[in-house]
Fold this sequence. Notes:
The structure holds two protein chains of two kinds.
Chain A: H1 36-46, H2 51-72, H3 89-93, E1 96-107, E2 110-122, H4 129-136, E3 144-148, H5 150-155, E4 158-159, H6 165-185, E5 190-194, H7 205-216, E6 222-227, E7 246-249, H8 257-264, E8 270-274, H9 286-297, E9 305-308, H10 318-338
Parallel strand pairs in A: 2-4, 3-5, 5-6, 6-7, 7-8, 8-9
Antiparallel strand pairs in A: 1-2
Helix pairs in contact in A: 1-2, 6-7, 9-10
Chain B: E1 2-4, H1 21-30, H2 37-56, H3 74-79, E2 81-90, E3 97-108, H4 115-125, E4 132-135, H5 137-143, E5 145-146, H6 151-172, E6 177-181, H7 192-203, E7 210-214, H8 224-227, E8 234-237, H9 239-246, H10 253-270, E9 276-282, H11 292-309, E10 317-321, H12 330-351
Parallel strand pairs in B: 1-10, 3-5, 4-6, 6-7, 7-8, 8-9, 9-10
Antiparallel strand pairs in B: 2-3
Helix pairs in contact in B: 1-2, 2-4, 5-6, 6-7, 9-10, 10-11, 11-12
Amino acid sequence: xxxxxxLADGDAREAPALPAGxxxxxxxxxxxxxxxxxxxxxxxxxxxxxxxxxxAIEREETSACLRLQEDLGLDLLVDGEMYRGDMTTYxxxxxxxxxxxxxxxxxxxxxxxxxxxxxxxxxxRPVTVEWxxxxxxxxxxxxxxxxxxxxxLMDWAFDEHYASRESLALALADVVRQECEALVxxxxxxVQIDEPAVSVRPDEIDLAIRAMHRVTDGLRARTIxxxxxxxxxxxxxxxLDLPVEQFTLELSNSAxxxxxxxxxxxxTKELGAxxxxxxxxxxxxxxxxxxxxxxxxxxxxxxxxxxxxDCGLKTRSPEEAEAKxxxxxxxxxxxxxxx
Amino acid sequence: xxxxxxxxxxxxxxxxxxxQILRRALHGVxxxxxxxxxxxxAEDEMTxxxxxxxxxxxxxxxxxxxxxWHDPVSHVARGLAGFRIEGLLRYFDTNTYYRQxxxxxxxxxxxxxxxxxxxxxSAAAAPRPVKGIVxxxxxxxxxxRDTRGRGMRDLALEIASALNRELLDLEAAxxxxxxxxxxxxxxxxxxxxxxxxAMRRLVAGLTSARIILATSFGDATPFSGDxxxxxxxxxxxxxxxxxxxxxxxxxxxEEIAAAAAGLGTRLAAGxxxxxxxxxxxxxGRNTRLEDPGETYEQRVRPILEALRAxxxxxxxxxxxxxHGLEFLPRDTARAKLxxxxxxxxxxxxxxx
Lengths: 339, 352
């Protein structure tokens, strides 16, 4: 959304919270598959088509995504990111100091337009707040706000401006903090700050932690981070010093290997256990998901365990995503009953 | 002899529709709308485009851009027996991934898996030469999961023996230069001893092909002396990373050039006479375009001067990017190639 004014104090509205004592809360990482008509509309806009009709479709599909999450029985909902392309490029497009590059490969047959830092990065207006408000208005469930963290925004951009990775990461931390504050003012109780890049340079974990302190210290919200597909052994248990309350992590892609790592040193935070592999077409059975949940219960108590897919679901077809979540919910309910 | 060449990979997509045929073909197969054979045709065409870009930029030695490679690790592991391919992991500090191979049985090679692609590229690039490229045994072993419990040393040596057959086939396919990529070396210098053993197995029986051992993803120059005795014709280093490390406090141009001269002296001192150098002097990870004049004065000239001043003559220098170019948008990759050619031309004027 491009025409958003900063929030006035009177706009603040406290979003609902999860029921007290709920065990194994069910959530997702953020993105849902984009329906074909949305993809077509996005492609048309990139060729100079009508942005307003795309915006209308994004709103409709966001509503549909929230209804789907309610129907499937998820507890903490997300807006589904129907309006976002890539997780870094979207923010770069809406902050000052960036330009967007030509296509580069992400993995397999996926490509994205990578941000390029060409000047001082600045936050001049809310980026996600209007979507948070819109999504919250569509449901009685709490909605988790999802942002990309400063270390990842730094690491996944080409930097043509700053003198060092540190100076760019800390400047971005101030930018992300401003967005967090705007979300909290709009009523967000749960804020997830994704940092998938923190595992790739173990020597920079301290920088990632410093940057996250700037984002979360004193923030009036439950804080979560999502990390995936990295060399966790190189940064564990130092990873736990990232100042957030919950880590949503990819467990299924690595065949639950991360749980072995967590046995080497206690996992002291809340764990959002990834029980669905989002990079495989195959639908996990309820039994398989139950096994994964029980395995996760072996390293953290039920009071600190959340259940989610490994990563964002945008890599799957809408049918696959729905079937996977359906089994995740069924498995979680069965395990809940047994606790 | 001073040549210009890319290190290994090249973008497999661009912003023009004609540069997106491979993406469309793969999507088509994924949706069941196209036959898998149509992917091969798109790979052929993207390979031709990668060769054409290099050729038009004046590169002296080309690569096929590794257009057909899923990633640098699993592509080679899939060609070998004894591996199964597992989950995604980030490839070093890039926002790209590789599928991790798991060594589950004896490692072998049943049939050639790189030679046919080499023949295709070589024919398409003629008369310019193409270098064959294979990911090395240390990198493959280190980035794989060893489920056999026999350790990394055992795995690396088995991989070297299996890959030896592939190198022999590449040589038979006409590859006069074969590059062995060992990007993990800069991060695990303790593997240098194992590399000596593995390289002997890897190159056994080659009669004419010359081997480049290429490092990347960090500065391997501090232990260049450990690599000197390897049975290779050329050693490749990430000069951008080496200078970044050395000049953390130096900003003046003279100080950076002095650091480069020191690097050149150090490299020359460790070289076996006659060994060539591949110098990664263009940053393949950042869109910032190098100023050719400044880059020449700060990164190229001081090193070549130091090499000339040493008593250990270097027979051949390849100027290159420090990484594969697939991490850059295609237009930026092209612009980097033209700068590389300009550096090569200036170096030839002064040092040829």
